[in-house]
Design brief:
The chain starts with a strand and ends with a helix. Strands 1, 2, 3, 4 and 5 form a five-stranded antiparallel β-sheet that branches. The chain contains one helix and five strands. The longest helix has 20 residues. It is α+β, with helices and mostly antiparallel strands and about 100 residues long.
Length: about 100
């Protein structure tokens, strides 16, 4: 899987929780040939993040909420997969991904 940013993310900083908005492309690679992708998805990502300033003036943070929406998708093989079913699968992966990023 490859995650590519389609544009610079937009950051809103607030006192309690800040948000990052990003448009990205997620590619799922073909397991049989690296010459072709299996699926390419245009996604909108919204992260709620809590920033903290560490002792050595390093800016750190913790993601509190992660929402990923598949806006469009191209599938390069015969399938009954739809954007709606892919959205539910991507949403199911958001929480484990958030926990991994925060660890």
């Amino acid at each position: 899987m490859v995650l590519q940013s389609q544009s610079a993310p937009r950051l809103e900083i607030n006192k309690e929780s800040s948000k990052i908005y990003a448009n990205s492309k997620i590619k799922i690679l073909n397991p049989y040939s690296d010459e072709y992708d299996a699926v390419s998805m245009q996604c909108s990502i919204v992260l709620s993040i809590e920033f903290e300033l560490l002792n050595d003036t390093t800016l750190g943070g913790k993601i509190n909420e992660m929402n990923v929406t598949v806006d469009d998708m191209e599938v390069y093989f015969m399938t009954e997969l739809t954007t709606a079913t892919m959205n539910s699968q991507v949403k199911a992966l958001a929480n484990p991904l958030m926990l991994l990023i925060n660890s």
